[in-house]
């Protein structure tokens, strides 16, 4: 390999090693070895991908970025898709640019970690990036990106930033993405297909550790509201996603603007532990999302907040309070054609504290099916619906098991609505007012007491 010291790099953290690294890139064999030491650079190292390139720190090498911009900017020429037929012969020679076992640190307020432009099959493995602005930034066009076993830690911007990029096929796995001020993984103004986020620890990505003013942030943040942007085929599975409460913050925040060329969605959020933010999962304008098998706990406002969305399947989740000072609850507003089934929603409200929100709130919704759920300890109600139509609440259990009874009632329908059905539910005798319903609600065959 091309050991940087053979090209004049000092690696003492004081000398400027920018020219030596550029020399190694130009004259070396394409595999740059960063031996033990701190290699200080003062401007971005441009890496034109005319051939395969590997930056290898061996777990010992540190790059200190003392200037503005990314420490490394990898620039390819891939303008096609993931289809082999669109890949030009010269692009195959630049495939698999690899950055591994390397530490990148920032000592400039506008320093970034690594930027990818028009690359094909880039690989990040065992990389630590800290104290920069954005850790890994993908821009313009990239394909087949793999990020695994990395640490994106304590950066002032975003850990992994998909910023106005056309990107298909990216896997983010087995990584620690934490304490980044503006978010863990953020997608903005981009067109993305096939994104898998799995097996990561994504935590505390907000202003708190940085001592700055609050800004809306999330561990995973997806914004497709810009013209031409869209995100499809998104899997968030088997992650720990938690934080501290910040104003306007969420663990997972998706703001979707449905595109005209194809239905949005093809998203699943499953098998995660998600908790401790203002809203744990906050969806706006979404279509076709499956939220299943998660433990979603302790919110400042709602465990799940859904606005202006449709075709959601919300099943077999545990919604609960873990921290006594926080809350529990699910709220759907102006949404339609959604299933909520097999969920447990429980609020262990401490004495003297008032949540003020029922466990499941439905407002201006249409065609919502709620079945096979448990609503335990709701204050004031288990299910609370306003101005809803064609909503079915069936086969649920509603109880208040506390010594000091706080639930005012099991199910309440009010306002304008029609063709609603409440049937086949079990309502515990400790709930004082089983069903409060305006005209437009059919109530039958519920088991009350026992």
Describe what you observe in this structure.
It is a single chain. By secondary structure, the chain is mainly β. It has a domain of 123 residues. Helix content is 3%, strand content 51%. It has a 45-stranded parallel sheet that branches. The longest helix has 10 residues. It starts with a strand and ends with a strand. The relative contact order is 0.05. The mean pLDDT is 93.
- The helicity comes to under 10%
β content, as a range?
over 45%
**What's the tally of helices?**
2
**How many individual β-strands?**
45
Poorly predicted runs of 5 or more residues: none
Compute the average pLDDT. 93
The main β sheet shows up as: 45 strands, parallel
- Label the overall shape: elongated
- First and last CA, distance: 77 Å
The helix-and-strand class reads mainly beta
What is the radius of gyration computed over CA atoms, rounded to a whole number of angstroms? Answer: 26 Å
